[in-house]
Write a structure and sequence with these properties.
The protein is mainly alpha-helical and 203 residues long. It has one domain. The protein has helices spanning 25-32, 41-48, 52-60, 74-86, 92-103, 116-130, 144-154, 165-197.
């Protein structure tokens, strides 16, 4: 299975992979936080393309933990990027429910089965394989079982923090990956539409 519809952007961001040295996942996050433990709201806007009022609304609803001294840490940014990966194809309430299924209440690490930065890294590793030259060939179609098998292999290094955590994580990753793929398809369709009709047409 090769993901034919690709994106030059790092998942969940408006930043081009090439300009960031073709890194994604944890390598990308490490670059952002190389000289700091926290970044400002304005920097998150630049990275994600999400406006400040939207981010503040997510925080108010409890989907993202409050900033500490007006700064967001690596896991908070990762959580924001994961939400952003899905929000064009899935209702925000469902995204919030999904992230609660994985890690409980935002900002409370006591019930987490995985840090959000590591979850983001696993997701990006799966996506990198899907869009690679070789992919995980399964004819010309994207099959659910092939994606699940890829996720299972990618998560082999994951160490459970609680009974059943791996199963929960694999299910959540499957939903996120397919939601992200749906987002890419939607963006591709809009791009094709704009090519034919121009960008001034009301969608």
């Amino acid at each position: 299975m090769k993901l034919e519809i690709q994106s030059a952007l790092i998942p969940g961001t408006v930043m081009y992979k090439e300009k960031m040295g073709n890194v994604t996942g944890l390598e990308f996050l490490d670059k952002i936080f190389y000289i700091t433990d926290g970044i400002m709201l304005s920097q998150i806007r630049e990275i994600s393309g999400i406006d400040g009022s939207t981010l503040q609304n997510w925080t108010k609803r409890g989907w993202v933990a409050n900033a500490h001294n007006k700064r967001y840490n690596k896991n908070q940014l990762a959580r924001i990027l994961i939400i952003n990966m899905m929000r064009d194809s899935m209702q925000l309430e469902r995204i919030a429910q999904l992230l609660t299924y994985v890690n409980g209440v935002a900002g409370d690490t006591s019930d987490d089965i995985i840090p959000e930065s590591e979850l983001y890294d696993y997701l990006c590793r799966v996506i990198d394989v899907m869009v690679s030259e070789n992919g995980v060939s399964d004819g010309d179609s994207v099959k659910e079982e092939s994606v699940k098998a890829l996720i299972h292999r990618t998560l082999e290094s994951y160490e459970e923090r609680a009974a059943g955590a791996r199963s929960r994580l694999e299910k959540a990753c499957g939903i996120i990956i397919f939601a992200y793929y749906a987002t890419l398809v939607r963006h591709k369709a809009n791009s094709m539409f704009d090519t034919v009709f121009g960008t001034t047409t009301i969608r």
